[in-house]
Amino acid sequence: MTDHTEHVEIALTDELLGIRRRLHRHPERSFKEFETSMRLRNLLESHGITVLDNPLDTGVIGEIKGEHDGPQIGLRADIDALPVHEDSGLVFASENEGVMHACGHDIHMTSLLGAAFWLAAHRELIHGTIRLVFQPAEELGQGARAVADAGLVDGLDAMIGTHNNPDYKPGQIAVGVDPMMAGCVKFRVNLHAQGTHAGYPHRGTGPLEAMAAMVLSLQTIVSRNASPFHPLVISVTEVHGGDVWNVVPAEAGFQGTARYFHREDGDLAERRFRQVIESTAAAYDIAVDYVWDDFQRPLVSDPDLATLAMSHVPEYAQLEPIHPSMAGEDFAEYEGHTRLLFAFIGSNGSGGCADLHSPKFVALDDAVKTGAEFYANSALEVLEHLS
């Protein structure tokens, strides 16, 4: 690298450990991260980092200008928590009842702060500008879109993001050109029939049999239509209909999700979904309305940036193959605005450890160091590459 031949090493200091614990103790849900945002702003300013105006109610945007002109890139960490009651056994467990950093966003924030503090102290190595995007509401899949719509990523030549992954150990990083996290669909189906007395079913057009047929038929989309070499998931997760034992209800419905890695598979699933729902409703002589909300695209890094990162990660961490996740990540929404680089950061790696979103989820402190070093090293590498 220009003026920087050694990789960045960032110590896991008492300051960073304290930050991680405070953030973990005080989690806040999506778009309600008020205290978290105030804390982040104060921490950035205490290290001489400029905080930019933000029209959103939550989230923080920092900026570090290097001593040399060059491109502009973004480093992003998500800041929201989940409505989960913590059962991790940590001495610094959540003090906010029913809310927990069960996805490890406290690790993400602390990692980005660690990188930011180091970069702000080494501006002579920065050829360009680094924007620090502490993004709200990733868990709703709406935060990245809100940040982009507010113009907060305008002018960026690339964005770098991470997510901790308990399948890997601290010190391990998975990055590459393959798909990493799935595209996400939320679907909802409402059936409208003619209710009747349960003893006289012929006098109505009950919706429950039609709903059962739809739910079963949707499972054949994966088993009989999709390529076995492309992961595709369609899950019905909630059903409802009727509340009296002797009445055939007039209304019923269900909802669920689809996950995919390839655009053609998402299109296939939608096409067959519509056919199954409409043809089954017609066969049972009932009315139906439905929503297929393909709200989040698959997350795939820019090939050039991913190849660049893969070549440098072994200098400071153990490079691992990507094990793609069927979970979604709204970092993918920035793809329409700039080039993306994303990595999984090892956060546990012990056999049988709890997964993301579990009340027992535990991310180890050392993951902060791994994440911070990925942010800082990748920022300098990408700035040089784009120059």
UniProtKB/TrEMBL annotation:
Cofactor stoichiometry and binding remark: The Mn(2+) ion enhances activity.
Highest taxon of the lineage: Bacteria
Cross-referenced InterPro entries: Amidohydrolase (IPR017439), Bact_exopeptidase_dim_dom (IPR036264), Peptidase_M20 (IPR002933), Peptidase_M20_dimer (IPR011650)
Cofactor(s) the record lists: Mn(2+)
Ligand binding (Mn(2+)): C103, H105, E139, H163, H357
Domain named Peptidase M20 dimerisation: residues: 183-284
GO annotation, biological process: diaminopimelate biosynthetic process
Gene Ontology MF term list: metal ion binding; N-acetyldiaminopimelate deacetylase activity
Keywords annotated in UniProt: Hydrolase, Manganese, Metal-binding
A Pfam family assignment: M20_dimer
Family matches, as NCBIfam families: amidohydrolases
Protein name: Peptidase, M20/M25/M40 family protein
Organism the protein comes from: Bifidobacterium animalis subsp. lactis (strain AD011)
